[in-house]
Amino acid sequence: MAMALWAARNVSLLSGAKALGVRCISVSFAHQNVAPSRKTLSKPGVRNVVLVEGVRIPFLTSGTTYVNLMPHDLARNALLGLVKRTNLSKDAVDYIIMGTVIQEVKTSNIAREASLGAGFSDKIPAHTVTQACISSNQAITSAIGLIASGNCDAVIAGGVEFLSDAPIRLSRKMRKLLLSLNKAKKLPQKLSLISQMLTPSSLTPDLPSVSEFSTGETMGHSADRLTSAFSVSRQEQDEYAQRSHMLAQEASDKGLLTDIVPYKVAGKAEMVVKDNGIRPSSMEKLQKLKPAFIKPHGTITAANSSFLTDGASACLLMSEEKALAMGFKPKAYLRDFVYVSQDPKDQLLLGPAYATPKVLEKAGLQLSDISVFEYHEAFAGQILANLKAMDSDWFAKTYMGRSSKVGTPDLSKFNLWGGSLSIGHPFGATGVRLVTTAANRLHKEGGQYGLVAACAAGGIGHGMIVEAYPVK
């Protein structure tokens, strides 16, 4: 019943996506210069960690302009873009952390390779983290820990993903045979091993898997089942996807996506200055697409799913006192954060539903205190299922151990500059985009608190409170 009530209450918001896109943008601008309603979330005895700046190179559909590069090229240029944007001295950084998911084996610690390539001192330590779609979220919170504990004053956190050249391994059988061949001393032994290599089972490559290791199910299949469980219709999903693209296009046209730094790709005549996956489309075209995973009755399609994306991001985090001493004007405080996890089969993509009430309680906030919501859009159906879960007393009591629901974020505050469905989703880089966008929107719209949330493979989720730095 709660699901049906949510759908009925929001039908006006999720119908007529073109009108919705315009309405949401205008509502957002109408909230500019709203005075903060609560005191700051600083805590006695805890260092304030601030976001000085966050940038990203344009997010591009895999297989396009970045296709002949390597992941560290993208990450290096994100770091260089951050240095240029902030005029940061490269020896002023204590540590560098980057997230990635599909690792290039030649640059396994890509944070180190990218930082060296960008000209940072070889005395600055760097390490790489991986936590699926929230890898750069993890890079950020790891940086927060280093700063809050007093071990560092300035840390760069970022992430990169390059799916144009995902590593393809030889089969395990072939790898074992090659290792044995390397040790073989006599010709008969070598010939025997070589003959075993020339079989279909040996020659078949080991392709990168998009399925969950623990369940064997792809994320798309999980999303399809999730939409069915929460009664999210195909039309709702297509309308939400259309909304994302229209809002992203409008934000791009208005020059609001200021986190983008241009990238001059060697051998290309033109500078890359914008994302290339933003493509508003009519509902008629969206509804003609066939299901991508569960056929013929699934509701997840290529258009209402995030697409394979190449991209990189980086942000500069500092203790507040260090930032001010260096003459920086921070964008935001990074406050409370949580990580959650749940059943990776039936609740794979419900991280935001679990993380939202938990991080709000940790910060002592209510949903109504949040001016800006930035949630990762893996699938339109995933977003809508999370919203329905958050608005369900039954779900809260049955699965979350809560006495009542947290409620649904106001869509007039939700992902108003587009999201992963339209801007793109380089797995390791999206977290920095979410946090930076939340900070930029808070200043543009005059709000005080933003809430960032995301789901990730393995049934993991993340939530964080971003607080606007006061304008003085």
TrEMBL record:
It holds the Pfam family Thiolase_N. It catalyses: an acyl-CoA + acetyl-CoA = a 3-oxoacyl-CoA + CoA; decanoyl-CoA + acetyl-CoA = 3-oxododecanoyl-CoA + CoA; octanoyl-CoA + acetyl-CoA = 3-oxodecanoyl-CoA + CoA; tetradecanoyl-CoA + acetyl-CoA = 3-oxohexadecanoyl-CoA + CoA. CDD domains: thiolase (cd00751). Pathway: Lipid metabolism; fatty acid beta-oxidation. Residues 1-19 form the signal peptide. Coiled coil: none annotated. Keywords: Acetylation, Acyltransferase, Endoplasmic reticulum, Fatty acid metabolism, Lipid metabolism, Membrane, Mitochondrion, Mitochondrion inner membrane, Mitochondrion outer membrane, Signal, Transferase, Transit peptide. GO terms for biological process: fatty acid beta-oxidation. Mitochondrial trifunctional enzyme catalyzes the last three of the four reactions of the mitochondrial beta-oxidation pathway. The mitochondrial beta-oxidation pathway is the major energy-producing process in tissues and is performed through four consecutive reactions breaking down fatty acids into acetyl-CoA. Among the enzymes involved in this pathway, the trifunctional enzyme exhibits specificity for long-chain fatty acids. Belongs to the thiolase-like superfamily. Thiolase family. This is Trifunctional enzyme subunit beta, mitochondrial. It comes from Octopus vulgaris (Common octopus). The lineage of its organism: Eukaryota, Metazoa, Spiralia, Lophotrochozoa, Mollusca.
